[in-house]
Amino acid sequence: MNNTNIDQTLSELNRVLKYLVDAAQQPISQQRTQFLEFQADSGKENFGKGVIWSGNGITKQFVLNRDPDRFFSSENIDLDKNHHFSIANNLVLSSKELGSSVVKSNLQTVGRLKELDVDGSVSINQYLFYNAITDRLGLGIEEPNSAFSVAEDGVEVMLGTRNHSRGIVGTYASNHFDIVAGNTTWISVSPSGNITLGNTDHSPIQLSVNGNLAIKVAVPDPNVDLHVNGPIRFHGHLHFYAKEIPASGSYNSGDIVWNTAPTVGNPVGWVCTSSGNPGRWNPFGQITI
Amino acid sequence: MTDNLDQTIDTITQGLKDLVVNNDSSEHSTNAPYIIFQDDPNNISNKGIVWRGKGWGKQLVYNKITDRIFCSESIELGVNKQFLIDGVSVLSNTELGNTVVKSSLTELGILKGLVVDGSISVDQHLHYNAANNRLGLGTQEPNAAFSVFENDVEVILGTQNNTKGIIGTYSNNDLDIVTGNVSRITLEAGGDIRLGSKGAGPVKVTINGKLSVGASSHDDRASLHVAGAIRFNDKLHQYASGVPQNGQYDQGDIIWNSLPRPGSNVGWICVIAGNPGLWSPFGDIKNPIT
Question: Which chain A residue lies closest to B181 (C-alpha atoms)?
Fold first, then answer.
């Protein structure tokens, strides 16, 4: 060993000793002017290394783990007030909000929402369905047959439109449809189309027509209030028109046939004076000049 | 001696180096409560912990410019641990903290319940307006508590006032009441009502009650009270004090005498069609029975 080597060695020793002395003079902390660096051997990875807090109880750690590369913290991480978690300088979580980039979740409960805006379909309790493709809403039915349908007790009630000029309400399948007031049915439509106005379980109703009433008439006469295409029956007695008395059929006393081709000297009609088939008929209302 | 000196110095040097290396290592036990990164008080940026080895260095360093601690890796917490801000949990393995009240989430899981204080919009088609408590399907401004707007027709379901519920069309459109998806009753836009459908067979209409047509007050003695003329079997029946002076009439049409008295007749019957046609009296009225 020559003198130069000795000087170099001593110089190195001095540097190291000075470092140790400096370090020893820091009583309350490790003070660094550079990174705290965990250096792996050349070409090797550097997992499982990091900061360890040891003492009584389980060791606390903040170390680098693999698969995927991540830091593992054995403890909660608490940010100071008004600070937030961000990814690539983009806020993802503050104490008050999720970042706008966080769009997907599997949340099962949410708070009391101030508003709700949904782009797609909605299903509630597997009972209320809004289909974003058909734009239809079903209560108790997933594939409603109108814009809005209620399916209950095996009956589908529809509310929607038929075309560009017509709205509809009623049943889709062969079911009755009742229109109620005071939770009592007052108009009932049968599956075959028969209509009952009023309710036999209640007092007779008063049905008023503010206009003209036509029954089986293709072109109603605007000059009459009631236009019936065929015979009528009132007070239990049949009234109809014919050229002469009936030759067959069951008739009751008091039924009247009006003469459809009246002429002077002939009767205005015939009245059934004895029930039968066709019964006995007598002329009445002799037409005079 | 020189060799011994060299050996001694080498040993001491290596020992001291080991001390230095160990001092830098995380495995070094220290009672120092903090690791303080400090150089110039005005320049504490880009200091922190670095893991250097194969591949990119992993780092947890402070950046003064952005005033944040940058972490190059994901952070994984231990079981049952949480992220907190100011001592309050904001995210655990199973839930977002209660203080987190705002989001832009576009996907949620299967919700256990849903309570909304304000308005709701679904697919820009179903709208619940919290201001007027109305629900519109296909319309943002329904004209009833619930409206369906489709094919340019608005069908409304709601109430008219404190005593009346309503169902029908809002604008100038017909409403069909259907069974079996076939129209049975049609309320035309102008108010005309059709019972039974033109395309279907005749229906039976039963009235459990009394029917009045054009009568301002119904005569309770009559099941059918018609204020004006009637026509049945296509023959006209009307009341007048005499035969008509004009108008088209058909054979068999009858005019009932509105002023009958003994010696006159109960009515007139059209025996030849025309305008007004030929009319003959019928039904001589005799003297009253005493």
Answer: A172
Quote the pTM value: 0.80
The nearest CA of chain A is from the CA of B272 a distance in Å of 8
Give the whole-angstrom CA distance, residue A187 versus residue A190: 10
The torsion region of residue B63 among left (phi > 0), alpha (psi -120 to 50) and beta comes to: beta
DSSP state at residue B202: P
Which pLDDT score is estimated for A10?
75
pLDDT tens across A145-193, in order?
999 999 999 999 999 999 999 999 999 999 999 999 999 999 999 999 9
Q: What is the identity of the amino acid at B167?
A: I
Q: In what order do the strands lie in the sheet with A136-139?
A: A122-124, A128-131, A136-139, A148-152, A155-163, A166-171, B174-179, B182-187, B193-195
Where is A19: in which H helix or E strand? helix A3-24
Cβ–Cβ below 8 Å for A226 and B230: yes
Q: Rounded to an integer, what distance in angstroms lies between the CA atom of residue A145 and that of residue A168? A: 12
More confident call, A44 vs B258: B258
Instruction: Tell me the shortest Cα–Cα distance from B6 to chain A, in angstroms.
Output: 7
CB-nearest to B86 from A95, A121, A258 is: A95
Contact present, B114 and A124 (Cβ < 8 Å) = yes
Q: Kindly determine whether residue A135 and residue B137, on different chains, have CB atoms separated by under 8 Å.
A: yes
Q: Which two tokens stand for residue A70?
A: 């991540």
Establish if B250 touches chain A: CB-CB under 8 angstroms: no
> Residue B252, Cβ neighbours under 10 Å: how many?
23
Residue A26 confidence class, pLDDT cut points 50, 70, 90 = low
Q: Please name every residue paired with A64 in a beta bridge, in sequence order, or none if there are none.
A: A71
Q: Do A168 and B175 touch (CB under 8 A)?
A: yes
Gap between the Cα atoms of B211 and B226, Å rounded: 8
Residue with tokens 């008395």: A245
**Residue B266 host element (H or E):** strand B265-272
Largest distance between two CA atoms of chain A: 168
